[in-house]
Amino acid sequence: MNDLAGKHIVLGLSGGIACYKAADLCRAMVKESATVQVVMTQAAEQFITPVTMQALSNRPVYGSQWDAREPNNMPHINLSREADAILIAPCSADFMARLLHGSADELLSLMCLARPVAQVPLLLAPAMNREMWAHPATQRNMAQISADGAHILGVGSGFQACGETGDGRMLEPAELLEDLVAFFQPKTMVGLRVLVTAGPTFEPIDPIRGITNHSSGKMGFAVAKAAREAGAQVTLVAGPVSLTTPRGVERVDVGSAQQMLDATLAQAPSADVFIATAAVADWRPASPSGQKIKKDGSGRAPVLAFAENPDILATVAQGERARSGQLFCVGFAAETHDLVTHARAKLARKGIPLIVGNIGPLTFGEDDNQLLLVDQFGTQELPRASKIALARTLVAEISRRLHRTVPPAG
Ligand code: C5P
Fold first, then answer.
1. What pLDDT sits at residue 1?
2. 3-state class (DSSP) for residue 170
3. Residue 91 has what pLDDT?
4. Which of 36, 142, 175, 264 is the most buried (most CB within 10 A)?
């Protein structure tokens, strides 16, 4: 829970009903260890009080460019110089128009204008009625503000406070937090398409029952999230898990290993990186029954025959794209013992450049893990940490190998 540790965020509120969500956002940022300095326009103070925002941010709120608390009486300079980023949430249509013109007659717009553009990024979370959002003036303003260097985080769609339904709602606090955390991650995978498999597979015995395993999918979802944060276009082929799809990731849900293979092969021709984190069942019932297998009262249990499942990773790694060097394949090895030996054997057997070893019982269902990267040059331990922290390091290691910027670890 410290994705924003060491970051100082200026949270600007302009006038809009979405100000009530800014309270939650502020709290969420503080929980992630950011320091948050709130600046509010007068219009924002009509929707939520500075008292609430001060209590949540644990700092006095600024609202006036004439605030005499600053010894030099220049809050617009002081506040903008110490920020790692300025996030305006909600950013009203009027505030966008003010940014466009470089207005500077109240503290928040003055501070945005006074910020050192190269050092202090400006992120905007628009919030407005759908007609205001769709209006050519707003769209035009937004295009120009983007061209001037602001990052527009997009809007949500759905029911609006005015009673209408459409685009223009402010993104939810959790979504904004995810975007803000992602914003600070190194963009090592921009322009790459990354394909990830995750979770267990489910091999049907009959329409009611099946065989699966304890994989939670958490590691694979973290890898997909980390690749997206690094700027990649990510497709996540997920077995049956109950996890939220990381923001900006395209998800394809599958059940059996055969379905996972089909979905993976459909995506692989356009992928640059394939990361197989899924715990694919090795075998499936050879002939699943079309109807529920019933007890017949005899006390005899049905005898199941098994067939071996296709090896998704090996199939992709043997394909033309991987063999010609256009697709970088990464496998996972979940073992209970002799991790290095088994991982090395798997590297050769699957014909892949990188394998990530972990101890099965220490990772399944857990929020943290420890990894061992094994390639032809050697091994590298990633000590116990949260799965998202490990996934970010893994993504950096994959990028390093793709771009060959640094000598291999060993
Ligand atoms: O062969 P083994 O299951 O130990 O290899 C594990 C690696 O291979 C993981 O990356 C897993 O996602 C992948 N795999 C696969 N298809 C299978 C079995 C494993 O893609 N049928």
1. 58
2. coil
3. 98
4. 264
**What predicted TM-score, i.e. pTM, was given to this entire model?**
0.93
Q: What is the pLDDT of residues 384-404, one digit of tens each?
A: 999 999 999 999 999 999 987
168 and 25 both lie in a single domain: yes
312 lines ligand 1 (CB under 6 A): yes
Give the ligand 1 atom nearest the CA of 356.
10
Ligand 1 centroid to residue 299 C-alpha, Å: 37
Contact 333 CB / ligand 1 (< 6 Å): yes
Token code pair at residue 7:
């970051």
CB distance 309 to ligand 1 below 6 Å: yes
> Among 313, 327, 338, 363, which residue has the most ligand 1 atoms within 8 Å of its CB, making it the best to mutate?
313
For ligand 1, whether the C-beta of 263 sits within 6 Å is no
Q: Quote the CA–CA distance of 20 and 303 in Å, as a whole number.
A: 60
| Cα(98)–Cα(89) distance, integer angstroms | 15
CA 385 / ligand 1 centre spacing (Å): 23
Q: Which two tokens stand for residue 335?
A: 């073992």
Assess whether 358 and 218 both reside in one domain.
yes
Three-class SS state of 79: helix
Active site residue 162: yes
Greatest extent of the chain over all pairs of C-alpha atoms, in Å: 91
Q: Which residues of the chain have pLDDT under 70?
A: 1, 405-410
Q: Is 20 part of a structural domain of the chain?
A: yes
Query: The CATH number of the domain where 89 resides is what?
Result: 3.40.50.1950
pLDDT of residue 408: 45
Q: How many Cβ atoms from other residues are within 10 Å of residue 372's Cβ?
A: 18
Model pLDDT, residue 409: 46
Per the structure block, which two tokens stand in for 339?
A: 């991790």
Residue 360: predicted pLDDT? 79
Angle at 327 between CA 323 and CA 328, to 5 degrees: 100
Phi-psi region of 238 (alpha: psi -120 to 50; beta: other; left: phi over 0): beta
Domain range for residue 386? 193-289+300-403
